[in-house]
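Figure 3 (text version): structure tokens given as input.
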């Protein structure tokens, strides 16, 4: 029992179902055996009834023969022992009695006086031992089974005394031979199941008639027990001479001289009980199947709900506190358990959400604090760089002005060779380029963090393009600008320019690392109530495992010395400070797209047609 307690509930329920099925199977087996016994009794009763019917028909036929023989024995022709006239009488009688082999008239000393059918030569006298007994007792006599010396057939003889006119003495003997092989025709009208057989045996149990295969079995000892005359039929299960088992009904006939035995084969019993067994088996199978199916359904429902609750508990243990879906339950206990489990899960989820909110607030405060710290450091660095750049720009700008002035004077002198003029033009071009660089540096260094104001992102894009144009041309990278909106944002222009510049620099460095022909697109567009600025490149893009870390401080995928990992982090802090959105996604070129979105600023309603609506081109 302890072993069963340690088994899963599914096996316990299945064991209970099987325990209930065993008594049902035993009851079915008992009912099947009871049906067999009942039908066996019916078959035995049928065998007894058929035997009684067959015995009655045999007695009736023999009674007819007895009446005929008694009448013939008293006929004047026979009493007078007139052989010639008796022959004619016998011939007429034999024509109407096909089972009678012959009628023979004998004198008391055994001389043959007449016969209905001619006897073989040499049979003028017979010495049968029963003749003196019949003459002496003046009573009829039935012989045992024998083979006729006249016809060679298996016969029994009915012997009748012939009395004189005064019925005082026996003057002769009348012998009537009965053909045992043809005696089976007496039972032709008796209804028998297929395979059944009717046998007639004498006192010694020797078969003298048989309804089937008479030639084969007549004369053999059957072992049929004798039956008392007038007793009810005796039934038994025996093996016949042909080796088949049958239910036999035995009845005495001819006042006990013979026994009529009717055998019904066991196949008849099987033919009767098999349909009943099949019906009962079908019913039992249906009942057991229904019981097993019901048990399986109960097991399935029980284990399904238990497994569902167990899976939910495991999910909670793994940290997933999503609410459990309320499902139908098989009983009240499961419903109460489900409700309690849902209540527990909701309570745990609420507690976790409260902790997460508290942790999120603390994390937000830490991020704000870190952002403020980074901005302070950045402002200090920008201020220092601005002072350095302004000084260097001032010092370098004066020599450049002298170089340009001298080049222009040389260009105006007469007699200069074409080669010299080309050299002077190259000198002017390079000096002008250097002056443009110094001018951009001066303009960038003079910018400082100012309070937020209305900013036109198209102007920011122009400034970034001016700053990066030379480097992009040298790197053979095409820079395109698409602007489909004139809406402005509320921010600090210098900070927004810094974010855009970081995007462009990152795109350029990504393309340089791939070694392919570069392309960068700066796209300005509407995004609902916001303005979106995107920088697209056709570089190698960002690995999926690095996407979540792009805006973390000091994270960089560049080689050592190529980046500090602060550019995107600072950009994130700037955009986040204005309540905007900054992010990354892939593009159709296979590269990266960095973008930010800021809320559109309320303007004074200037018509969009007052300025260029779409700024598009290649730089």
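Below: residues designed for each position.
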């Amino acid at each position: 029992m302890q072993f069963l307690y340690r088994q899963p509930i599914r096996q316990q329920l299945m064991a209970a179902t099987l325990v209930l099925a065993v008594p049902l199977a035993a009851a079915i087996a008992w009912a099947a055996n009871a049906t067999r016994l009942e039908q066996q009794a019916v078959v035995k009763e049928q065998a007894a009834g058929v035997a009684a019917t067959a015995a009655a028909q045999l007695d009736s036929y023999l009674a007819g023969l007895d009446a005929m023989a008694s009448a013939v024995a008293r006929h004047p022709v026979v009493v007078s022992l007139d052989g010639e006239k008796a022959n004619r009488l016998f011939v007429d009688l034999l024509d109407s009695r096909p089972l009678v082999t012959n009628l023979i008239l004998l004198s008391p000393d055994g001389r043959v006086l007449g016969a209905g059918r001619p006897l073989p030569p040499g049979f003028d006298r017979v010495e049968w031992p029963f003749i003196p007994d019949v003459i002496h007792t003046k009573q009829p006599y039935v012989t045992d089974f024998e083979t006729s010396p006249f016809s060679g057939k298996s016969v029994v003889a009915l012997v009748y005394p012939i009395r004189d006119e005064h019925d005082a003495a026996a003057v002769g003997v009348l012998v009537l031979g009965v053909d045992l092989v043809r005696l089976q025709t007496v039972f032709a009208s008796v209804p028998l199941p297929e395979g059944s057989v009717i046998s007639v045996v004498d006192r010694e149990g020797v078969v003298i008639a048989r309804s089937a295969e008479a030639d084969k079995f007549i004369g053999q000892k059957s072992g049929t027990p004798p039956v008392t005359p007038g007793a009810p039929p005796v039934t038994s299960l025996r093996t016949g001479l042909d080796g088949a088992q049958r239910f036999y009904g035995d009845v005495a006939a001819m006042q006990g001289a013979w026994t009529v035995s009717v055998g019904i084969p066991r196949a008849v019993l099987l033919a009767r009980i098999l349909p009943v067994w099949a019906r009962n088996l079908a019913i039992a199978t249906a009942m057991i199947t229904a019981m097993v199916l019901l048990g399986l359904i109960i097991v399935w429902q029980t284990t399904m709900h238990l497994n569902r609750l167990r899976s939910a508990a495991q999910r909670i243990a793994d940290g997933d506190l999503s609410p459990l879906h309320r499902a139908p339950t098989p009983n009240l206990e499961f419903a109460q358990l489900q409700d309690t489990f849902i209540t527990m899960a909701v309570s745990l989820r609420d507690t976790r959400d409260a902790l997460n909110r508290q942790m999120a607030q603390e994390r937000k405060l830490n991020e704000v604090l870190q952002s403020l710290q980074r901005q302070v450091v950045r402002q200090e660095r920008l201020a220092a760089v601005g002072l350095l750049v302004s000084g260097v720009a001032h010092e370098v700008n004066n020599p450049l002005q002298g170089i340009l002035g001298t080049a222009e004077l040389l260009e105006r002198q007469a007699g200069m060779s074409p080669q010299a003029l080309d050299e002077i033009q190259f000198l002017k071009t390079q000096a002008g380029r250097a002056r443009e660089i110094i001018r951009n540096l001066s303009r960038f260094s003079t910018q400082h963090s100012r309070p937020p104001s209305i900013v036109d992102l198209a102007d920011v894009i122009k400034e970034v393009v001016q700053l990066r144009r030379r480097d992009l041309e040298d790197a053979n990278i095409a820079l395109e600008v698409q602007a489909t909106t004139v809406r402005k944002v509320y921010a600090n222009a210098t900070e927004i320019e810094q974010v855009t510049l970081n995007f462009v620099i990152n795109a350029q460095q990504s393309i340089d690392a791939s070694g392919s022909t570069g392309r960068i697109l700066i796209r300005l567009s509407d995004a609902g109530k916001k303005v979106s600025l995107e920088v697209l490149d056709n570089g190698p893009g960002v690995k999926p495992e690095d996407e979540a870390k792009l805006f973390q401080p000091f994270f960089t995928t560049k080689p050592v010395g190529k980046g500090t990992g602060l550019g995107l982090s600072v950009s994130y802090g700037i955009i986040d400070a204005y309540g905007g959105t900054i992010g990354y996604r892939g593009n159709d070129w296979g590269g990266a797209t960095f973008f930010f979105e800021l809320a559109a600023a309320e303007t004074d309603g200037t018509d969009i047609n007052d300025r260029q609506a779409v700024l598009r081109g290649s730089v």
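The two ends are 89 Å apart (CA to CA).
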